[in-house]
Automatic annotation (TrEMBL):
<dbReference type="GO" id="GO:0008237">
    <property type="term" value="F:metallopeptidase activity"/>
</dbReference>
<keyword id="KW-0482">Metalloprotease</keyword>
<dbReference type="GO" id="GO:0006508">
    <property type="term" value="P:proteolysis"/>
</dbReference>
<dbReference type="GO" id="GO:0016020">
    <property type="term" value="C:membrane"/>
</dbReference>
<keyword id="KW-0812">Transmembrane</keyword>
<dbReference type="GO" id="GO:0046872">
    <property type="term" value="F:metal ion binding"/>
</dbReference>
<keyword id="KW-0472">Membrane</keyword>
<keyword id="KW-0862">Zinc</keyword>
<dbReference type="Pfam" id="PF02163">
    <property type="entry name" value="Peptidase_M50"/>
</dbReference>
<feature type="domain" description="Peptidase M50">
    <location>
        <begin position="117"/>
        <end position="166"/>
    </location>
</feature>
<feature type="transmembrane region" description="Helical">
    <location>
        <begin position="14"/>
        <end position="40"/>
    </location>
</feature>
<keyword id="KW-0645">Protease</keyword>
<comment type="similarity">
    <text>Belongs to the peptidase M50B family.</text>
</comment>
<dbReference type="InterPro" id="IPR008915">
    <property type="entry name" value="Peptidase_M50"/>
</dbReference>
<keyword id="KW-0378">Hydrolase</keyword>
<feature type="transmembrane region" description="Helical">
    <location>
        <begin position="180"/>
        <end position="196"/>
    </location>
</feature>
<protein>
    <submittedName>
        <fullName>Stage IV sporulation protein FB</fullName>
    </submittedName>
</protein>
Length: 280
């Protein structure tokens, strides 16, 4: 399993840039230590995901952590998503013990130990910020999906991430105005949020497609009440992740509609129009 996951590791160009900058400026130890911490952090995510039976297609390493790319056509239970996300930061909890153990070897001195502790703490705290695509931002998104419909949860997570990134950037400008690596990371995160916002329609379409084709039955039930003039687009926007949906059409003498059946009919072209009343 370890060899399989290691074969899927890819280093993002931004990380190569940070590694090159660290090497050229004489900070080789800092660069090597950062790489090791990020690698172990991300493997924590990947191993946990693999343990739950998730399909890990790629592990992309970034200066502030990484992204384990998964099969997007699968939906996963809330507790599994939380554990996979927490598994990365948990590695940063025990990693200081590794550094203390290395002190017994001649290649690892007090300077390297201090660098390790500082970088490990910085990565842990930074990664827990509620900003997409950091672990804290993704965890926030998972919790928002419990409270809000899929589309709304995604939008709220991204908009909050922009606000939080703006606040963090203001502090960074005040305390670390000339930290090139930090501003590279901030720029990358901003672009990642922008890219994710652009991909939202595609994510939403995949969510509906997965819902229409899955054979799973969810314990959570959402009873939706919509007017007979409601469009299918508006109705689908009310759908939650990992939930069954019963749709009552107000003002129409029709039985309640099952959300999964509605999505299935939509993709099969069985809906006469884009109005909920056109179904059946």
């Amino acid at each position: 399993m370890t060899r399989l996951l290691l074969s899927k590791i890819r280093i993002h160009p931004i990380f190569w840039l940070v590694i090159a900058a660290g090497t050229l400026t004489g900070h080789l130890w800092e660069t090597v230590i950062a790489f090791v911490i990020v690698l172990i952090h991300e493997l924590g995510h990947a191993f946990t995901a693999h343990w739950f039976g998730w399909e890990v297609t790629e592990i992309e390493l970034l200066p502030f952590g990484g992204v384990a790319k998964l099969d997007e056509h699968e939906e996963h239970p809330f507790h599994e998503e939380c554990l996979v996300l927490i598994a990365g930061p948990l590695q940063n909890i025990w990693l200081p013990l590794l550094s203390y153990g290395f002190l017994a070897f001649p290649f690892w001195g007090a300077a390297q130990h201090q660098i390790f502790l500082s970088q490990n703490s910085a990565l842990l705290l930074f990664n827990l910020l509620p900003i997409w695509p950091l672990d804290g931002g993704r965890l926030m998104h998972v919790f928002l999906e419990v409270v809000y419909p899929f589309k709304q949860a995604y939008k709220r997570a991204l908009y909050f991430s922009i606000a939080a990134l703006l606040a963090f950037s203001t502090l960074a400008l005040w305390h670390y105005p000339f930290s090139a690596n930090l501003w590279i990371i901030i720029s990358f995160i901003l672009f990642a949020i922008y890219k994710e916002r652009r991909l939202l329609p595609l994510r939403f379409l995949r969510f509906l497609l997965t819902l229409s084709s899955t054979k799973k039955r969810y314990a959570r039930l959402k009873n939706l009440s919509v007017p007979k003039e409601a469009s299918l687009t508006d109705v689908f926007s009310m759908f939650y992740k990992n939930a069954e949906h019963h749709i009552h059409i107000r003002g129409a003498k029709k039985p309640d509609i099952d959300g999964k059946s509605l999505a299935d009919a939509y993709f099969k072209g069985q809906c006469k129009g884009n109005n909920i009343s056109d179904y059946q």
